[in-house]
Design a protein that fits this description.
9 strands; single chain; three-stranded antiparallel β-sheet; six-stranded mixed β-sheet
Length: about 475
C-alpha cells in the first residue's frame, strides 16, 4: 500500500472516469474522449503540494465483462479475501478480461474505490453486476453520480441501488465542479475509512492552504501589474516640421500595445497558478474579455458612462491627470495624461470630445519632445481589476476535464460584468488613493497601500472561489 491515500476511479466505459481524475488532479493533459474504451491501462496520477505527493487517483479502463466476472466470483469457493488475487491469476493472460484485471489491480494493492456512473440514463443489469463486484472487494468505496447530459430523471433510482453497495453516494459534475465542491468531495472521502481520517485530513488542509497561496500570489501579481501599468508612458523627439498629432497617434498605439502585453502576461500567470495550460484554456466566444482592452465595447459592457467617469475622477481628487471642466461635465477628461486629439483607441467613445491630451516637453533650443501617458483616469484601475476578476472567475471554473467546449460559467455577481461596482465605498476609496499615490510617485504611503490592496484582492478572490 502507498504511503499516501490512493483511490482507483472505476466504472463503465465513457461514464466520465477520466474527467473526474482530470478535475481532481488538475491535469489538462489527461486523455478524455467521447469514444468509449480510450483508457486501456490503469495509470496513477499523484497530486503534489509544496513538492510533496499527498494523494493519488488511478484512472482505470472501463469494465468489459462485468456479468461474466461476477459469475466467476460467485462460484469461487476459497476465502473471500482471496477472490481478487485468484481472479487475476486466472485471467491474467485472457484478452477478454484485460480491462477487469487492470481496474482491479490497484484495488488489490489497497486503493479505495470511486465508482463513476452516468445517472442521466436508466439503470441496466450490467450496472448492478459492476456494483456487486466492487462490493465483493471489501474495499472502502464511494459512488459518484455524474449526470453527463444534465438529466436527473433516474437519479433517485440510482441512489437507492447504490446505497446497497457503497459506503457513500455523491452527485459530482466533473465538468463544472468548483474548488469548494472538490474540497467537499475530499472531505467525504475521510469518512470512508477510519484509518484514513488523519491522512485525508492532512490532504484537505493541504488543498485549502495551497488554494489560499494561489489566491495570495494572484493578488500580489495584480498589484505589481497595476503599479507598472499606471506609470507607463511613451515619448519621442518632435521635429519642428513634424506633425504632432501623427506622432502622438504612433506613441499611443505603442503604449496601448505595451499595456495589452502586460495584461496578457498577468492573465497567463493566473492560468499557471491554477495549473492550466494556457494553450488549452479558452475564453467563451461571448465573453467580453475577447474584446480589446481599449475598445468602446469593453467600457460600455463594464457600465461606464461619461457621468460615472467624471465622478470617478473627481473622487480621486483629479489625480488622473484629467483636466476636469465641471461646467461641461468633463470635456477634457483624459485616458492618457499626455495624448492629444483622438489618438488613443478609446477616443472614439466620446466622439472626439478631447478625451485625451498631449504634452510637449522642451529639450533645449529648437528641440521638443512629445509624451503619451501615463494612464489618465482612476477608472482604469476598475477596468483592469474587473477584467482580472472576470478572467480569474473563468480560470477557476474552467474544469481540467473540459475539452474543446465553449464553457461559460455563471457570472460571479449574478450577471453584472463589473465586479468592482459592487465594492463598498472604503474599497473604492482605497483603489483611488492607490492610483493617486502611484501616479504622483508618492513613497510614504505607497507600500502600505499596496499591502492593503493586496489584502482586499485576496479577500475578493477567496470569496469568489467559494461561491
Amino acid at each position: 500500500m502507498s504511503d499516501i491515500p490512493v483511490f482507483a476511479v472505476i466504472g463503465h466505459p465513457n461514464e466520465g472516469k477520466s474527467s473526474v481524475v482530470a478535475t481532481l488532479v488538475e491535469n489538462d493533459a489527461i486523455r478524455i474522449s467521447a469514444r468509449p474504451g480510450e483508457t486501456v491501462a490503469a495509470k496513477a496520477y499523484p497530486v503534489s503540494i509544496d513538492g510533496r505527493e499527498v494523494i493519488a487517483f488511478v484512472d482505470t479502463p472501463g469494465f468489459q465483462n462485468p456479468v461474466q466476472t461476477l459469475g466467476w466470483m460467485r462460484k469461487f469457493s476459497g476465502p473471500e479475501s482471496e477472490v481478487l488475487p485468484a481472479f487475476l491469476a486466472e485471467f491474467a493472460d485472457d484478452p477478454g478480461m484485460a480491462h477487469e484485471c487492470e481496474l482491479l489491480t490497484p484495488v488489490i494493492a489497497g486503493a479505495g474505490i470511486i465508482y463513476v456512473l452516468d445517472a442521466s440514463r436508466p439503470m441496466r443489469q450490467v450496472d448492478k453486476a459492476e456494483m456487486e463486484i466492487l462490493r465483493l472487494t471489501g474495499r472502502p468505496r464511494m459512488a459518484i453520480l455524474n449526470c453527463k447530459t444534465g438529466e436527473e430523471e433516474f437519479l433517485d433510482e440510482w441512489k437507492a441501488e447504490l446505497r446497497r453497495h457503497f459506503n457513500m453516494v455523491r452527485v459530482f459534475n466533473a465538468l463544472r465542479a468548483t474548488f469548494a465542491e472538490r474540497l467537499r468531495l475530499l472531505e467525504s472521502l475521510r469518512a470512508l475509512e477510519q484509518d484514513w481520517e488523519g491522512a485525508l485530513g492532512r490532504v484537505v488542509d493541504a488543498f485549502a492552504r495551497d488554494w489560499k497561496r494561489r489566491n495570495a500570489e494572484c493578488a500580489a501579481l495584480t498589484v505589481d501589474f497595476l503599479r507598472r501599468v499606471l506609470t507607463m508612458s511613451e515619448s519621442a523627439p518632435l521635429a519642428e516640421d513634424e506633425d504632432r498629432a501623427a506622432k502622438e497617434a504612433v506613441l499611443a498605439r505603442r503604449l496601448e500595445e505595451r499595456i495589452r502585453a502586460e495584461e496578457g502576461r498577468l492573465h497567463d500567470q493566473v492560468c499557471l497558478q491554477f495549473r492550466h495550460d494556457r494553450r488549452s484554456f479558452a475564453l467563451p466566444e461571448q465573453s467580453v474579455l475577447r474584446e480589446d482592452l481599449f475598445s468602446t465595447t469593453t467600457w460600455t459592457v463594464f457600465g461606464l458612462g461619461k457621468t460615472r467617469l467624471v465622478a470617478a475622477a473627481v473622487a480621486a481628487g483629479g489625480a488622473a491627470g484629467a483636466a476636469l471642466d465641471l461646467a461641461t461635465l468633463g470635456h477634457s477628461l483624459g485616458l492618457f495624461a499626455g495624448v492629444g486629439g483622438a489618438a488613443a483607441g478609446l477616443a472614439a467613445l466620446f466622439k472626439g470630445e478631447g478625451l485625451v491630451r498631449g504634452r510637449l516637453m522642451g529639450m533645449g533650443i529648437g528641440r521638443r519632445r512629445v509624451q503619451v501617458g501615463p494612464l489618465g483616469t482612476v477608472q482604469w484601475v476598475y477596468i483592469l481589476l474587473d477584467r482580472l476578476l472576470m478572467h480569474y472567475w473563468y480560470v477557476i471554473h474552467w474544469s481540467h476535464a473540459v475539452r474543446d467546449k465553449d464553457f461559460l460559467p455563471v457570472p460571479a455577481d449574478g450577471g453584472k460584468q463589473g465586479l468592482t461596482g459592487t465594492w463598498d465605498r472604503e474599497a473604492r476609496a482605497l483603489c483611488a488613493e492607490f492610483f493617486k499615490t502611484v501616479r504622483d510617485g508618492g513613497t510614504d504611503r505607497a507600500m502600505d497601500l499596496e499591502e492593503d490592496l493586496r489584502r482586499l484582492l485576496e479577500g475578493e478572490l477567496d470569496r469568489m472561489s467559494r461561491l
